[in-house]
Amino acid sequence: MDAIDEAIIRCVVRDARATYAEIGKAAGLSPSAAKRRLDRLVATGAIRGFSAVVDPQAMAWHTEAFVEIYCTGNPTPAALRKALDDIPEVIDACTVSGAADAMLYMLAKDIPHLEQAIQRVRSTTLVERTESAIVLSRLLTRPRL
Amino acid sequence: MDAIDEAIIRCVVRDARATYAEIGKAAGLSPSAAKRRLDRLVATGAIRGFSAVVDPQAMAWHTEAFVEIYCTGNPTPAALRKALDDIPEVIDACTVSGAADAMLYMLAKDIPHLEQAIQRVRSTTLVERTESAIVLSRLLTRPRL
DNA sequence: CGTGAAAAAATAGCGTT
DNA sequence: AACGCTATTTTTTCACG
């Protein structure tokens, strides 16, 4: 993981469909060297994958919420992960510091759908209660770097 | 936005570097038709862009936090957006329902860096106080669909 | 890592429904 | 208006220095 790898990552975070020629130019490398580096970054797991950023408005699912989870007892991260994995509306889940045990980012079609999904989260025996903040408007979204 | 567009989006969310032949197969289309559709989805804004999903552990920045913002007065979303746009550690920002006015997702090198970034958020005249939850462990991250 | 040739994919033009 | 097909250009990929 040197400066060249970081340049490649910056380039491909900005545009995952960049050609190897473009990636190479951004990193000061030939196209073939750029490909070898990128392949290695994927193989080692530094890059998890490539994804399209979709406008939630354009899709059917346009109701977003941040949900704080308060657990009963002290479930392990693995147990929590296993419980949440089956709920497709849960997009992002992290254990956090502070009063809550975990923070979820959820995505649903509409409010009734979101409510139903939160019910499923609650029905997990591990979860005692939840506290939700529904997204009203999205101010900015940046690629993660 | 029909079923074919949705199939294309599903395909490209799973792998943004898929070839038009692959995208076409997923949608039951020829490569050229797949390209035309994808180009249109980008042009209309349904697809905002293509990005690599980077393992935060592998990068220098591996301290994440959810930050609730409580504002003075009633700033417009536009004003809030403008204030946060200059702070690169702010990855995601939304106005939300509930007690807080907005929720941020922030990413920094380490705790001191995060603290400094939150200070910058606080120094914004619009912000009265903040409440942070630092991410301890990431349970799951799914592409947004 | 770079170079250069072969294979694959992307792109643009054209005819069809 | 949208598709498939074909020809051309560009990109990817691989062997070698």
List the SSEs and their pairings.
2 copies of one chain form a homodimer.
Chain A (H helix, E strand, L loop, with lengths): L2 H12 L5 H8 L3 H14 L2 E8 L8 E9 L5 H9 L4 E7 L5 E7 L2 H13 L3 E15 L4
Antiparallel strand pairs in A: 2-4, 2-5, 3-4
Chain B binds a DNA duplex (17 and 17 nucleotides) through helix 3.
Describe the structure.
- Two copies of one chain form a homodimer.
- Chain A is of the alpha+beta class and 145 residues long.
- The first copy, chain A, folds into two domains: 3-43, Orthogonal Bundle (Arc Repressor Mutant, subunit A), CATH 1.10.10; 56-134, Lrp/AsnC effector binding domain/regulation of amino acid metabolism (RAM) domain (Alpha-Beta Plaits, 2-Layer Sandwich).
- Chain A is 39% helix and 32% strand.
- Chain A is built from five helices and five strands, in the order H-H-H-E-E-H-E-E-H-E.
- Chain A has helices spanning 3-14, 20-27, 31-44, 77-85, 111-123; strands at 47-54, 63-71, 90-96, 102-108, 127-141.
- Chain A has a four-stranded antiparallel β-sheet, with helices on one face.
- In chain A, strand 3 and strand 4 form a beta hairpin.
- In chain A, helix 1 (3-14) crosses helix 2 (20-27).
- The radius of gyration of chain A is 19 Å and the shape is elongated.
- The two termini of chain A are 15 Å apart.
- The mean pLDDT of chain A is 93.
- Strand 5 (127-141) of chain A pairs antiparallel with strand 3 of chain B.
- Chain B binds a DNA duplex (17 and 17 nucleotides) through helix 3.
- Chains A, B: Keywords: DNA-binding, Transcription, Transcription regulation.
- Chains A, B: GO terms for molecular function: sequence-specific DNA binding.
- Chains A, B: It comes from Lentzea jiangxiensis.
